[in-house]
Amino acid sequence: VTRPAEPLDAPFYAGCQDPVLNNTARASAVLLMLARNSEVDGATASVRSVQEQFNDNFGYPWVFLNDEEWSEEFKEKVGQAVGKEGNVEFKQIPKKMWGYPDWIDQDKAKANMQVMKDKKIQYGGLESYHHMCRFQSGFFFDHPALLPYKYYWRVEPNIRFTCALTYDPFVSMQAHKKRYGYNIALWERGQTVPSLFRKLSDFKSAHYLPTSPLWTAMIDASYMPWPFRRALAWLRNRDGNGDLWNMCHFWSNFEIADLDFFRSDAYRKVFEYLDKDGGFYYERWGDAPVHSLAAAMLLKPEELHHFSDLGYIHDGLQYCTFQSTQEEKKRGFGMPPGISGKGHGKIEGREEVGCRCQCDPDARVVEP
Ligand code: GDP
Ligand code: MN
């Protein structure tokens, strides 16, 4: 008798943990939000959602980061949203982590930004957005306020969870040796990262890094005969072999990750190489494709976790939890699931799993 293989990446728990599974020792972990003072309402809403659906039961600390000084209003309103018992820090980002490094040709950067603006590439013309993506790619994990922690959960203004999370995801990440957790995977806009895949692939070859199944999963499977592929190698989002990145990436506005992955020599080398190249400014590399392709290059498939039990909404995209189809179940909840993009990102009627979770964007799910 052959038994079905253990799913590679099943949810940590099926259904609601009732009572809430919060009696284990807390992990070394923090909730992190980068925001602007002007986003006070969106930030407050996000904090309320995370608190209600999760953190009122777990009491993890929050760190809020800003490139500017925090307004009194922000600190007061957001502090209140966390609650009296909460452990909250409002910190500024050191200048050396935010802004042009000295090797960037700022005239070229600005000229390219103008071109991106004219081409209507989202945020392409917005200088601060480029600084933000560089910070979120290469610096947040070294911010002094994060140094005490091993795991982090990234929260953005204007996000919402539609499911209660009734176990400790950090403890589970640790127990399962997971290093990178995501919820939504979707396709990047190629115009923002025309040369990123090629450069990372060159880096991978230069350092003789093995090709993990995750990396392969990022490559478009619609193969062409070799000579044709090679001939296309100079085109955007193709590597030296002519392989095409399928643009799949993890949407990093939600992330639960092991900060020591980002702090590893391997990741730092990748970031330094990209940073020297200048694509954070000459193109509009987002931190999402950078995190994703680095994870695909450096992590083992079993070190990734799809939080398929989280209902999550941001910017008009929503992930609804689902009891996978039998087919997906056999494949171990389809991991690498996001990699195919299937069932992600769009509001879709799906059978649901546990946790009084609904796909109704207006659903309020509050713990009993
Ligand atoms: P999108 O998710 O790519 O559409 O971009 P967002 O506008 O949501 O920005 C991503 C994250 O970076 C959010 O947490 C924002 O609050 C934050 N952010 C973006 N630009 C800035 C900035 O100039 N200063 C600060 N402090 N935060 C920023
Ligand atoms: Mn966002």
TrEMBL record:
Keywords: Glycosyltransferase, Transferase
Domain of life: Eukaryota
UniProt source species: Ophiobolus disseminans
Alphabetical list of PANTHER family matching this protein: ALPHA-1,2 MANNOSYLTRANSFERASE KTR1, MANNOSYLTRANSFERASE KTR5-RELATED
Any one GO cellular component localisation term in the record: Golgi apparatus
Family: Belongs to the glycosyltransferase 15 family.
GO biological-process terms attached to the record: cell wall mannoprotein biosynthetic process; protein N-linked glycosylation
The keyword Transferase appears for this protein: yes
Keyword tRNA processing among record annotations: no
Protein name: Glycolipid 2-alpha-mannosyltransferase
Annotated catalytic residues: E255 (nucleophile)
InterPro entries reported in the protein's UniProt record: Glyco_trans_15 (IPR002685), Nucleotide-diphossugar_trans (IPR029044)
Gene Ontology MF, one: alpha-1,2-mannosyltransferase activity
